[in-house]
Design goal:
Layout lengths: L1 H24 L16 E2 L6 E5 L2 E2 L6 E9 L8 E5 L28 E4 L7 H4 L1 E9 L6 E6 L6 E5 L4 E2 L19
Parallel strand pairs: 1-9, 3-10
Antiparallel strand pairs: 2-4, 4-7, 5-6, 5-8, 8-9
């Protein structure tokens, strides 16, 4: 009986170890935003592409989170198009010039998105129509937001269009309790 129990425990340990390794190899436990090669992103704006986010002013009733609807149109839709949320809203090279790095070539993207969704998530016909509407739940980041439409997937992102900026009515509102040390040792 003890041998069976020992064998059972051993098999459970092996199964758990194999399961852990398999999960790690297949990306489970990996931070989804780390898959975006934002350092490779380039600006490739297209005049026929557009993004519109609404409402423009969030938190009118004092909320610190709110759903935003984003409508997009792409002239060359593909299954790997994605929409990223950026805060602050200006995330191009004009808001953060390079630091004399020969590898950095303008225009470039100087900020990573705080979240993203594939454009075809809400419309399975996106690749045929080039139109989609996505909903994002935003939390007051104490700064404005904008959305960027990217083609080329996560590994070779090309910025096709940028939305209007949106903001919370009171972006500097106190949201959560925080502890901070004062000037004296007993504050």
């Amino acid at each position: 009986m003890e041998e069976r129990f020992a064998l059972y425990v051993l098999l459970c340990c092996v199964a758990a170890n194999v399961g852990f390794s398999w999960a790690h190899v297949n990306g489970f436990g990996e931070q989804p935003l780390s898959k975006i090669a934002i350092h490779k992103a380039i600006a490739a704006f297209h005049d026929s592409a557009s993004i519109r986010a609404h409402p423009v002013l969030l938190g009118l009733k004092g909320e610190d989170t709110q759903w935003v609807t984003v409508s997009l149109v792409s002239p060359h839709p593909s299954a790997d198009d994605w929409l990223g949320v950026f805060s602050p809203a200006k995330f191009n090279s004009s808001s953060c010039p390079p630091v004399n790095d020969p590898k950095e070539q303008a225009p470039y993207i100087c900020s990573a998105p705080i979240k993203y969704k594939y454009a075809n998530e809400s419309n399975s016909d996106y690749t045929k129509t080039g139109k989609a509407t996505l909903n994002f739940r935003l939390i007051n980041q104490r700064s404005d937001f904008s959305f960027g439409l990217f083609s080329g997937g996560l590994s070779n992102p090309k910025l096709v269009a940028v939305s209007n900026s949106i903001t919370f009515a009171n972006p500097k509102a106190p949201l959560y309790p925080r502890l901070a040390q004062g000037k004296s040792w007993d504050e």
